[in-house]
Amino acid sequence: MTDDGNTRPRATCRVCGDGLEQFLDLGEQPISQAFVEPGADAEEFFFPLVVGVCTGCAMVQLLHDVPRDRMFHHDYPFYSSSSQAMQEYFAGVAREFLDTDLTGDRPFLVEIGCNDGVLLRTIKDAGVRHLGFEPSGGVADVARARGIRVRGDFFEERTAKEVCAAEGTADVIYSANTLCHIPYLDSVFRGVDALLAPDGVFVFEDPYLGDVVAQTSFDQIYDEHFYLWSAESVQATARRFGFELVDVRRLPVHGGEVRFTLARAGRRTPTPAVAALVAEERQRRLSSIDTLRGFAANVARVRDDLVRTLTDLRERGRRVVGYGATAKSATVLNLCGIGPDLVEFICDTTPDKHGKLTPGQHIPIRPAEAFADPYPDYALLFAWNHAAEIMAKERAFTASGGRWLRYVPDVHVV
Ligand code: TYD
């Protein structure tokens, strides 16, 4: 249970204060990246993973938040550079900034949640001023070892003001797969307001509600993913804090994201892409309670299909191994009640996860090499957002007769 004593779901929106309507209950869930040492007797922390939509600003959000220090701390085990494809992707994002918004006199980029420096290494190599905020000590140390400037703090009004006082305003404030982790957007936006140059841009990219609903990718919902953005909700939030949504770009990474670009109100002309995405969302009634309840019904169908499929494979004596001990997998495993009796172990390339057990369901995690030793009959692809990279490097698995079991957008074998 949440240790702030708040066991009741929030009734009002974190952003605008209007009423929240609940549409999805994913049950009691652990911290998604709290991998467990075998034999550890400390009680695991669980919280109700329940999702609602604001009737005022359309923001989709969790109804219980988890104290931030429980999620982001020295042993946070997610390294952004663990995917080769994502390394190349972020080098490209950095180069684009270097060619556009970082061409003025002594430009300055601040990143919220720089992790191991996957983006900032390119900015640093170009000799451009930068600062990464990263409260998770272990990953921050990797970035520092790469020569990147890191501040080991959460980004909020106080810390942003300190940076502005010491280093001046930022031309770009960027955040990838982090802004949606932060419930207290009011303080973040006040921080952006304090730190951003008059003509600067605040750019963030995260999983997109439109893709989550279209693909029933409910595993994008876990403790860290507090908000699921839409163009409509970001536009309303931006206005509330004196900013304007001036560009949106659909991104193929992490199972479907959008990059939202905000500027101070009136400073840049919004691109046609903004109005187009808002119109598309309205046309499909993306944020309506009916659509979101329909999504919840699809989640229940995928859950039942997956459990039935895995139970059937066990009864037929087939070996099933998981691929990628992702944060997303915590939601799937704990919602479905899938434990080591159905999935023997999960292989993963992250050394910090090896020898540990998944949160809640306690499936062992083993190094990537364990996958081929010997190959299982089926691999349940938890890192489905990296499918192209993984399937390309694991061709020998399918060549040996192995099959991939996937559950996005529905349960199927490939
Ligand atoms: P990611 O999908 O980025 O997700 P989440 O945010 O849900 O944790 O995490 C990728 C995980 O998958 C990470 O633990 C590393 C692992 N992984 C592999 O084991 N092999 C691979 O080839 C790739 C790309 C990732």
Summarize the structure.
It is built from 13 helices and 17 strands. With 414 residues, it is an alpha/beta fold.
Number of strands: 17
- The SSE string, one letter per element, is EEEHHEHEHEHEHEHEHEEHHEHEEEHHEE
Beta percentage is 15-25%
**Low-pLDDT residue spans:** none
**Derived structural class:** alpha/beta
CATH class of the domain at 80-289: Alpha Beta
Query: Which molecules other than protein and nucleic acid are bound?
Result: thymidine-5'-diphosphate
Domain Methyltransferase putative zinc binding: 13-72
Pfam family, one: Methyltransf_23
Organism: Actinoplanes siamensis
Domain C-methyltransferase: 252-409
Note down, in words, how this protein is organized.
Pfam families: Methyltransf_13 (PF08421), Methyltransf_14 (PF08484), Methyltransf_23 (PF13489). With 414 residues, the protein is α/β, with parallel strands linked by helices. It has a domain at 80-289: Rossmann fold, CATH 3.40.50.150. The chain is 33% helix and 22% strand. It has 13 helices and 17 strands. It is globular. The model has no long low-confidence stretch (mean pLDDT 96). The structure holds thymidine-5'-diphosphate (TYD). The site of thymidine-5'-diphosphate (TYD) has 17 residues, from helix 11 and helix 12.
